[in-house]
């Protein structure tokens, strides 16, 4: 039996990933930072609720204890993320980007991901087939964002793409450090969720596809890569 934790599983891509992995037979811990939203989601999903705020050391430590007591962890899906859009769903461009905004976005998307991964490493190391999926973004790709004409080139924000580029680098370095684990970054595609005010053009079913696929990798699967549903992406 595979045991899987998904952070930020109370809605959006995390919720859909949890639904699919429950259906695939995983024992799923649906992570939520809010008890009420989490209880509702876990009930709908037939998953276990674990309270986890990725920005909070004590919350993450408590989640590790709970999942360890439940028998351990095989798959960690680092999904929780924010884009921090402003009024009217506007993305802060370079001229409006402050250190404070960068810190807010990095606190969840980067430091949160490292906090959670670091805390769960002992459990993952005890798994026979450990897997980590880091939910990145197409906007993490320096190659794509710097290519005129690509949709990502038109995105004006600084904090979010920079945070996801950091996630990609973290993925590469962890994958080298832990060759026994499958550790990959994924780009779900532009998906209609609360994160973008439902401006995304894909459904969560489409967006969760690559997250689910990489969460189900066996020991012979790729590691240290960056993928969307079509295959490997340029860094
Ligand atoms: N939607 C897209 O087009 C798209 C494209 C590429 C990548 N992504 C990535 O996909 C992931 C999921 O995003 P989504 O589109 O599904 O957005 P979403 O619907 O806004 O869901 C984000 C989830 O993260 C949780 N979260 C935020 N901060 C948290 C924290 N400090 N601790 C724990 N959980 C926290 C949210 O919980 P609350 O409900 O409590 O806020 C929510 O469950 C993110 O990493 C995002 O960057 C999304």
Automatic annotation (TrEMBL):
CDD domains, per database record: carb_red_PTCR-like_SDR_c (cd05324)
Pfam families named in the record: adh_short
InterPro entries reported in the protein's UniProt record: CBR1-like, SDR_fam
Keywords: NADP, Oxidoreductase
Family (UniProt): Belongs to the short-chain dehydrogenases/reductases (SDR) family.
Record-given protein name: SDR family oxidoreductase
Organism: Actinomadura luzonensis
């Amino acid at each position: 039996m595979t045991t899987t934790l998904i952070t930020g599983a109370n809605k959006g891509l995390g919720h859909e990933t949890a639904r699919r992995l429950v259906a695939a037979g995983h024992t799923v811990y649906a992570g939520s930072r809010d008890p009420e939203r989490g209880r509702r989601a876990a009930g709908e999903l037939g998953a276990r609720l674990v309270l986890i705020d990725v920005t909070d050391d004590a919350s993450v430590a408590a989640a590790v204890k709970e999942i360890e007591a439940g028998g351990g962890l095989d798959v960690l899906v680092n999904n929780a993320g924010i884009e921090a859009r402003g009024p009217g769903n506007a993305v802060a461009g370079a001229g409006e980007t402050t250190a404070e905004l960068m810190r807010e976005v990095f606190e969840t998307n980067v430091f949160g991901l490292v906090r959670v991964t670091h805390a769960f490493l002992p459990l993952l190391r005890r798994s026979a087939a450990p897997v980590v999926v880091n939910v990145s973004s197409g906007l993490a790709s320096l190659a794509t964002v710097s290519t005129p004409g690509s949709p990502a080139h038109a995105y004006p924000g600084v904090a979010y793409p920079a945070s996801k580029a950091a996630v990609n680098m973290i993925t590469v370095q962890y994958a080298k450090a832990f060759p026994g684990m499958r550790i990959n970054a994924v780009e779900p595609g532009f998906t209609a969720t609360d994160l973008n005010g439902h401006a995304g053009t894909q459904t969560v079913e489409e967006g969760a596809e690559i997250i689910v696929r990489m969460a189900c990798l066996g020991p012979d699967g790729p590691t240290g890569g960056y993928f969307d549903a079509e295959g490997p992406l340029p860094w």
